Amino acid sequence: MKKLISIKRDKLIKVSSYVKKFTLPTKVYFPIDKSVKLNINAKKIKKGQKLYDLHNASYYSSVSGELSGLIWKKDETNNPTLYLSIINDFKEEKGKLINHNANYYLTTFCSFLLPTLEILKNQKILYFNAIKDDPYDVSVVAYFKENAESLLETLDFLRNYLHSKEVHIFLKENATECIEALSKFLGMYPFISLVFVPDLYPIGDDSVLEEYLKIPNLKTLKIVDLMYLQAAIINNEPLEETYVTISGDLVDEPCIVKVKIGTLAQELINEIKPCQNLSKVWVNGFFKGHLLDLDEVVITAQISSLIFSKEETKKENPCISCGKCLECCPKNCNPIKGERQNCISCGLCTYICPSHINFKERNTYE
Ligand code: SF4
Ligand code: SF4
Which of 321, 356, 363 has most ligand 2 atoms within 8 Å of its beta carbon, as the pocket-test mutant? Predict the structure, then answer.
């Protein structure tokens, strides 16, 4: 296999696993489509109430309040997206809890994950890919520290549910805080073990990991999947909060924020004030992520880091045929010619190019 890369960290970009909370947004926003027919009482929305189904997923409100309207923002990949907004009444009023078993909550709140679970069924080993490739994204540390016991309980439940014999959790060998958090409870779960991989980029991608560990057809559960599954199986509710790393060379106080899904990133930043006058943000890091206007970003479970940096998208220069983009690609693509059939969107070619050619926003150089 191709040699993977050890990323040199920028010392000016500090990260911290100190956790702050912001769970009182004035409004929350959920992606919607004009085709969706809303069949809900606009005046009384309860926390955890189902709003609508869209693209095989159900959306649930993370606050109680009332409907406000529709507004265009961007998603994490910089695509214009329509959002439904809900005004928070801060009452946190929940619907009546009806007692069901964990299977019911799993199939209700994680319906979009059922095809994935079907693929994982009856495999001898259930794999959980807890590798974070981005060097400046530490959100998983807060998630593991606050939820280690119930995360392991969720995995053990899934082991039985999917008829697997064991669970293997993939982690980087230098993910010490995550390893420590899990190790406290691992003794109670004899069928769950940790598997360590080196800190190389982009080893967290399933197809790269498959080659590295020589496990054919590797299929794994991801961190965000576990967050949804744990909320459903252990807490019997839809996922309402997520963890986001706040970092960057413009940030004085890096941290991780526990935040309501649907919160506007601008409101979050106004509240925690990591630094003054922030207007642009790298959503999900320099490698895989995109540079967006801060006031366009809505926090979803798919967003795990907001990086504020002087590093903006640089002016592109002509290609100097250095070949670095071809050399670094872990999937043997040729981004210059647009030959990216196996591309895993790791962002290495854009990151490494001395002419600052941004392959993330285009299909070919020519
Ligand atoms: S083409 Fe670029 S983004 Fe795609 S896998 Fe290769 S290096 Fe990564
Ligand atoms: S890394 Fe940039 S400059 Fe070098 S060959 Fe690739 S596109 Fe051209």
Answer: 321
